[in-house]
Specification:
The protein has one helix and two strands; from the N terminus they run H-E-E. It is α+β, with helices and mostly antiparallel strands. The chain has one domain (3-47). Strands 1-2 form a two-stranded antiparallel sheet. The longest helix has 27 residues, at 3-29. The chain crosses the membrane at residues 6-25. Keywords: Membrane, Transmembrane, Transmembrane helix.
């Protein structure tokens, strides 16, 4: 494999890692601010703020 091909593979892997990191961060930030649960104990509402 030529050096340019190796650099291309490394660049693609780095882009994939950065993209996955951004995706994971956005998924964590997209959590709802209010959680409503209905169970045997009744209704409970939890808020993040």
């Amino acid at each position: 494999m030529s050096r340019n091909g190796l650099y291309a593979v490394i660049a693609i892997l780095l882009i994939a890692i950065v993209g996955f990191g951004i995706y994971s961060y956005q998924q964590q930030q997209a959590r709802p601010g209010v959680e409503i649960r209905v169970d045997e104990q009744g209704v409970s509402i939890d808020g993040n703020g």
